[in-house]
Specification:
There is one protein chain. By secondary structure, the protein is an alpha+beta fold. The chain has one domain: Alpha-Beta Plaits, CATH 3.30.70. It contains 4 helices and 4 strands, in the order αβαββααβ. A 4-stranded antiparallel sheet has the order 2-3-1-4. The radius of gyration is 15 Å and the shape is globular. The relative contact order is 0.25.
Length: 130
Amino acid sequence: MDRRTSLSLLTVGLATAGLSGAATADDTGGIKLMVLYGPPPNPEEFEKYYLGVHMPLVAAIKGARRMEAAKCLPQADGSPPAFYRVFEMWFDSPEHMAAVFDTPEGKKVRADVPNFTSGTTVTRLVCKRD
């Protein structure tokens, strides 16, 4: 599956779940889970798995307010970015986040992360808007 097809499937999955990558007026407050992936040893293999296997699992998760995935670009001076990819997912509260990840779909996503992150760092942050 190529990148465009994978992104289309992700978009369809998010739309089916009532989510979009665009901010809405009700995106104030709540919390955001951020997953920051360090540079992988083999970017081509990482991309193939991330877009072809992992993101379809993520798209199957129901109940999050919003989801967004991005690939990091070089810095303005051309130096490599600190992270390779960033994923963000918004929730109403920590309890809401816990409930979403306690579903069978959420458990599949959590269990899948080690399948494509060997040799790279995975940093998770939970943030609250000011």
